[in-house]
Write a structure and sequence with these properties.
Elements (H helix, E strand, L loop, with lengths): L2 H7 L46 H4 L12 H17 L13 H18 L9 E11 L2 E9 L4 E11 L2 E9 L1
Antiparallel strand pairs: 1-2, 2-3, 3-4
């Protein structure tokens, strides 16, 4: 016989997969803690309550941080120095995203991208040096900082507004000249 005739006569049947076993249900330990009306057949929405979490931000309590945020002058010097490195093309902007307000971060990305397109590839130079830092705290949790920075080629002026959010400083405004 030819090969085509043999292939047409051979039929392979695959047995169906075995039925899935449903996992065993565990005894409901929460039934003892529910109020009496909810133990019945229906769920009582009014009796539902989530457990308290031992973290202030989830309990609705004011967050009391045991440690104060770093000094605003040190934080501003670090963030502004790193921002200048981003503008020069020596550091990825993503590293500063957690410390900046989204609008400030987007403006930094746009300016860094424009600098790369205009100036081309970044050449090697020394990291920025912070020459002077001045801090003014108009109220608790807010600091306005002015800096003088030497970036290896020229001296720049920078100003930043910092605000405490969740126990950490965040840059809410940034100007680098």
């Amino acid at each position: 016989m030819s090969q085509a005739v043999l292939d047409s006569k051979v039929r392979v049947t695959v047995p169906p997969p075995p039925p899935r076993q449903i996992p065993k249900s565990y005894p409901d330990r929460s039934a003892q803690s529910l109020p009496a009306p909810a133990r019945g057949g229906e769920f009582d929405r009014a009796a539902f309550a989530s457990p308290r979490i031992d973290r202030p931000m989830y309990n609705g309590e004011a967050e009391q941080s045991a440690e104060a945020p770093t000094s605003p002058d040190r934080f501003a010097a670090r963030v502004v120095g790193q921002s200048i490195e981003v503008l020069m093309g020596h550091r990825p902007a993503r590293q500063l995203q957690t410390w900046m307000h989204p609008d400030v971060y987007e403006a930094l990305i746009r300016r860094a991208g424009l600098g790369q397109r205009v100036l081309g590839r970044a050449e090697k130079c020394m990291p920025p040096r912070i020459k002077r830092v001045r801090v003014c705290e108009p109220r608790k949790g807010v600091a306005e900082v002015s800096l003088v920075v030497f970036d290896g080629k020229r001296t720049r002026a920078a100003a930043a507004r910092l605000e405490v959010r969740r126990g950490r400083w965040h840059v809410t405004a940034l100007e680098i000249i």
